[in-house]
Design the sequence.
């Protein structure tokens, strides 16, 4: 029986392989242009029509499937059997940490035969891949989702918050959430609002280089995250990633004050309008923030997990058509986060549309597209006008956290006045009353 | 060791070649950085650890895993000119450099190989730090061809395109931090491999030479030291398959093969002798004695330094090894050196001492040796190895020494060795298991279309025999010079220079072949002089600004003064050519001084005067100009 479905082959290649009764992993002999090639059939991803085989030398090559090409199956594939190493004796003195995964792979093994990367998410598997963990915590694992981070929705935040709260109520010393980096800062903000009065830390962690490569940042980040979750003196939602491009330190950013700032660097996450809470280096935790909620296992967690996804982010730009704002209002959106320019401005051409929105009870908030700094709508006429229409300035919150906060506020109440009050309250360190001169380090190359 | 020549057919030598050469294209293989190296201090450094990734079968590379467990870190050095985020493993690779693919395609077709229809970039796991990613990106472009070397057809297995590695610049922290410079990382390399069908050292060299010529004929490979690396695999029956990496000079290949065969024969002899002495792996025990106290007042500088740093001197007895650690395997390389290499690799130490060497040379006294022997309970037939370093390093070092001696009883270990400048080889690492390769998913497969193959086929470089006939005809060269040129790396430069410099083609040809070879024999690093410089020298000769007699001096000076230009050479060597204005007073003086002779000889005095003038200005004046001025003066 041929198992070519899902192998990615189409057309002539599929036909040839099917005729020869080949499945992925089988050993083939292909004759083309007077030469013969032997190797294991590899699945095909994306465009292209050639048949891909892995030769004995380990190399993959593609042979075009034409009418002159002959394919012959000369051996049946064997699927490598992996047996996870035995769970090492867990040291009872170590803190108990739950590692939850939402997708992507913080730890994985490579199938060198076909190139497939498999997630290693059982506790024993994790210890096998990152053996250092055995000396840091008693680890428990839970797969919550297996989806790319860009496909996560506010509904997922709700479920994730509920799952975390349940485990915390059962009495763990900390929670680590492995997360794809693209939308990790949105999730960290969401959990910051949803999980209030935390008794123990909840740390999100990701990797910019996938964990199947030797140079991956995953292990360093995971070690930092588990260490912080198990032992850090604070009880907040944090996000653990590389401090620099070097594998030296992991910093724990505050969940509401962290943003992905680079498409590919290891130190992509930066604390914006704030400072990291802590730093983990050589398994030592150093606190870097003067105020934080202290760890207190006796504290009762308050769960407020609901989000309203009828909230839109509208980025102002020269020439923005106010019809965009009207569209959301007509579609029944309950909140609009305007990403204004500079200190917090939007063109006067949009004024009428904004007035129509607030008149209909839509909560309109404003954060600056400058990312760094605080909005101040009292300096120029435009800002004063916007305030008079009922637009809520979000101070030093950058737009993504502002958006999540608006979704959360409207998830708690449908009353615009109450939602506005929630929006203005400092719930999870999203507002800092003082903007300190942040050393605007250009992404530093690391040093040693 | 026997000095009679080895009969390689009888020994059963089998050898295969793998030639790597950097491609001369504008940018690296997977980013737009120029393929330039830098000498200055790095502008950027960053520290990394590479973690052996686990395969589905749970296998890891033992050497890599060992280094990881020891906490080995890598400090990378970079500057902004030669590397970007791609080399730092901070940005995904860009699509493959198509110009580089075309060069490999050209070479493949010249070697009668069949291009694959689709190129798939692979990741070959390498976690010694030489690649920031922990793998080398490599891809097969063509397979299964042949070349003719003399009358023999040599099968060619494959032509690949891969990225060059970072270069190691040192270690620090007792060997726990390795420094690599990433400027070289990503430079495109062609790799061509022969089947293991070479049966003598001489043949290995000839095949390497033939491949080198084909690569050069593409006109798109770099030249000079460090741009070409030859790897060999050498095996003999009852010996082992040994991979030798990084032979830089073509002329060394036959020596390297010769020495490797000698080494393996020597190891077989040691194995037989150990069997005769009744020594088995079990005879060798990893029982180490801390003998630091014996050396507390030592005069040995090396040990003194360690003792002063509160480090440890550790010793081990090698039962039955007396005389064998001193057994020479290659010139200046004994079995003791073999042990020392292992100790350096696994124990990060500077070296070891053994009792088959003259320890007095290191300031170690006979009393110290006697006490040492007693401390490890060594009898007359036993050897003792000792080492001074940190406690951890000495432990690891002696464990590696004992492991190696246990192997000596039963086999010749399969390993990867690295070639030295004198043709001997040193231990590099254990031979990695089957190359662990998996697809580079960040780079889409690249089709090699029939149109592309046809285009490259239509523009293949001239084959050597056709080129010979053309050179003779076009430049009026004799056959010997033309042949030498074809074998020379300067063939391209010759044609350009002969056409544009105004210097006679045979002069250019003779210089670029015979003179350059003579200079190389004298130890001049001819590769230090760039094509641009050579071209400038000939242009200066053609323009009468430099005498052709001064060619070799200028060339030699430039080879020793990298970064300087032709004008610097001319000034430094005092070769500034006399202008007409400089020559007139000199000729005037000579004529006045020889007034009587001129009157006596009349017109016939010209020859004598010309001789006197040239004696004074040789190498600094154009003889034609001197003659003209002299004739005018005599009128
Ligand atoms: Zn680059």
Sequence:
């Amino acid at each position: 029986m041929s198992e070519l479905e899902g192998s990615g082959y189409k057309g002539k290649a599929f036909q040839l392989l099917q005729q020869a009764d080949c499945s992925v992993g089988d050993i083939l002999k292909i004759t083309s242009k007077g030469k013969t090639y032997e190797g294991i059939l590899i699945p095909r991803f994306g465009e292209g029509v050639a048949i891909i085989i892995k030769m004995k030398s380990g190399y993959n090559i593609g042979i075009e499937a034409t009418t002159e090409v002959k394919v012959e199956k000369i051996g049946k594939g064997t699927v490598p059997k992996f047996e996870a190493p035995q769970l090492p004796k867990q040291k009872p003195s170590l803190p108990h940490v739950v590692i939850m995964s939402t997708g992507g792979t913080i730890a994985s093994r490579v199938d060198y035969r076909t190139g497939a990367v498999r997630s290693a998410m059982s506790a024993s598997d994790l210890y096998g891949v990152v053996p250092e963990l055995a000396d840091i915590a008693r680890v428990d694992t839970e797969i919550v989702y297996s989806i790319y981070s860009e496909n996560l929705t506010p509904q997922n935040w709700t479920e994730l918050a509920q799952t975390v709260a349940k485990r915390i109520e059962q009495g763990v010393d900390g929670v680590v959430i492995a997360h794809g980096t693209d939308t990790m800062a949105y999730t960290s903000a969401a959990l910051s609002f949803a999980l209030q009065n935390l008794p123990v830390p909840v740390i999100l962690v990701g990797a910019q280089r996938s964990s199947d490569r030797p140079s991956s940042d995953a292990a360093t980040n995971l070690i930092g995250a588990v260490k912080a979750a198990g032992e850090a003196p604070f009880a907040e939602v944090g996000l653990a990633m590389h401090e620099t491009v070097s594998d030296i330190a992991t910093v724990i950013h505050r969940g509401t004050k962290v943003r992905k700032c680079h498409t590919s660097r290891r130190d992509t996450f930066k604390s914006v309008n704030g400072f990291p809470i802590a730093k983990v280096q050589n398994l030592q935790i150093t606190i870097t923030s003067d105020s934080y909620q202290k760890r207190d296992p006796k504290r009762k967690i308050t769960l407020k997990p609901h989000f309203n996804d009828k909230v839109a982010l509208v980025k102002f730009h020269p020439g923005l058509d106010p019809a965009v704002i009207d569209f959301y209002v007509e579609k029944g959106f309950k909140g609009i986060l305007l990403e204004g320019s500079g200190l917090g401005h939007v063109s006067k051409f949009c004024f009428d549309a904004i007035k129509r929105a607030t008149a209909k009870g839509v909560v309109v908030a404003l954060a600056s597209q400058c990312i760094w700094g605080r909005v101040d709508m009292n300096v120029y006429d435009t800002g004063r006008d916007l305030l008079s229409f009922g637009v809520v300035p979000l101070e030093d919150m950058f737009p993504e956290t502002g958006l999540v906060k608006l979704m959360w506020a409207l998830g708690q109440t449908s009353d615009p006045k109450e939602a506005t009050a929630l929006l203005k309250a400092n719930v999870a360190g999203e507002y800092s009353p003082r903007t300190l001169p942040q050393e605007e380090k250009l992404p530093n190359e690391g040093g040693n | 060791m026997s000095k009679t020549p080895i009969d390689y057919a009888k020994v059963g030598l089998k050898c295969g070649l793998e030639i790597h050469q950097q491609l001369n294209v504008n940018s690296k293989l997977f980013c737009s950085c120029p393929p330039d190296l830098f000498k200055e201090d790095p502008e950027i450094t960053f520290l990394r650890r590479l973690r052996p990734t686990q395969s589905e079968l749970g296998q890891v590379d033992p050497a890599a895993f060992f280094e990881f467990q020891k906490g080995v870190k890598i400090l990378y050095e970079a500057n902004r000119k030669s590397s970007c985020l791609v080399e730092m493993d901070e940005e995904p690779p860009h699509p493959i450099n198509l110009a580089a693919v075309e060069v490999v395609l050209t070479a493949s077709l010249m070697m009668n190989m069949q291009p694959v229809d689709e190129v798939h970039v692979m990741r070959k796991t390498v976690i010694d730090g030489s690649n920031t990613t922990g793998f080398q990106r490599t891809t097969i472009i063509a397979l299964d061809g042949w070349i003719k070397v003399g009358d023999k057809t040599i099968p060619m297995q494959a032509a690949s395109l891969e990225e060059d590695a970072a270069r190691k610049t040192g270690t620090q922290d007792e060997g726990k931090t390795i420094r690599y410079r990433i400027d070289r990382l990503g430079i495109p390399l062609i790799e061509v491999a022969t089947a293991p069908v070479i049966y003598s050292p001489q043949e290995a060299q000839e095949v390497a030479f033939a491949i080198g010529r084909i690569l050069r004929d593409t006109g798109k490979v770099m030249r000079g030291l460090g741009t070409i690396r030859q790897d060999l695999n050498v095996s003999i029956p009852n010996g082992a398959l040994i991979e030798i990496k990084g032979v830089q000079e073509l002329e060394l290949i036959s020596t390297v093969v010769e020495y490797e065969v000698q080494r393996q024969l020597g190891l077989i002899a040691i194995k037989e002798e150990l069997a005769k002495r009744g020594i088995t792996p079990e005879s060798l025990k990893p029982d180490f004695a801390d003998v630091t106290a014996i050396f507390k007042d030592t005069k040995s500088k090396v040990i003194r330094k360690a003792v002063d740093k509160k480090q440890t001197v550790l010793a081990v007895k090698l039962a039955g090894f007396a005389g064998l650690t001193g057994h020479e395997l290659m010139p200046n390389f004994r079995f003791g050196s073999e042990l020392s290499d292992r100790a350096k690799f696994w124990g990060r130490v500077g070296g070891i001492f053994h009792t088959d060497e003259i320890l007095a040379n290191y300031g170690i006294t006979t009393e110290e040796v006697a006490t040492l022997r007693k401390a490890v309970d060594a009898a007359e037939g036993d050897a003792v190895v000792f080492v001074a370093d940190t406690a951890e390093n000495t432990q690891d070092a002696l464990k590696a020494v004992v492991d190696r001696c246990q192997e000596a009883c039963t086999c010749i270990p399969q390993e990867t060795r690295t070639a030295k400048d004198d043709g001997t080889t040193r231990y590099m690492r254990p031979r990695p298991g089957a190359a662990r390769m998996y697809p580079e998913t960040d780079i889409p497969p690249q089709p090699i279309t029939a149109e592309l193959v046809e285009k490259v086929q239509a523009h293949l470089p001239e084959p050597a025999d056709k080129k010979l006939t053309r050179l003779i005809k076009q430049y009026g060269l004799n056959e010997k010079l033309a042949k030498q040129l074809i074998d020379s790396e300067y063939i391209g430069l010759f044609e350009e220079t002969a056409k544009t410099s105004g210097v006679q083609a045979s002069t250019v040809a003779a210089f670029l072949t015979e003179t350059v070879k003579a200079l190389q024999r004298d130890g001049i690093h001819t590769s230090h002089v760039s094509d641009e410089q050579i071209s400038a020298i000939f242009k200066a000769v053609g323009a009468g600004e430099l005498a052709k007699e001064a060619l070799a001096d200028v060339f030699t000076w430039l080879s020793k003064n990298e970064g300087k230009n032709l004008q610097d050479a001319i000034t430094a060597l005092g070769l500034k050519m006399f202008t007409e204005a400089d020559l007139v007073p000199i000729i005037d003086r000579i004529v006045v001084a020889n007034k009587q002779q001129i009157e006596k000889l009349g017109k016939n005095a010209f020859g004598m005067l010309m001789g006197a003038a040239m004696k004074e200005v040789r190498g600094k004046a154009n003889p034609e100009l001197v003659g003209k001025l002299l004739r005018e003066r005599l009128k």
Notes: The pocket of zinc ion is lined by residues B 28, 31, 33, 83-84, 86-87 (CB under 6 Å).
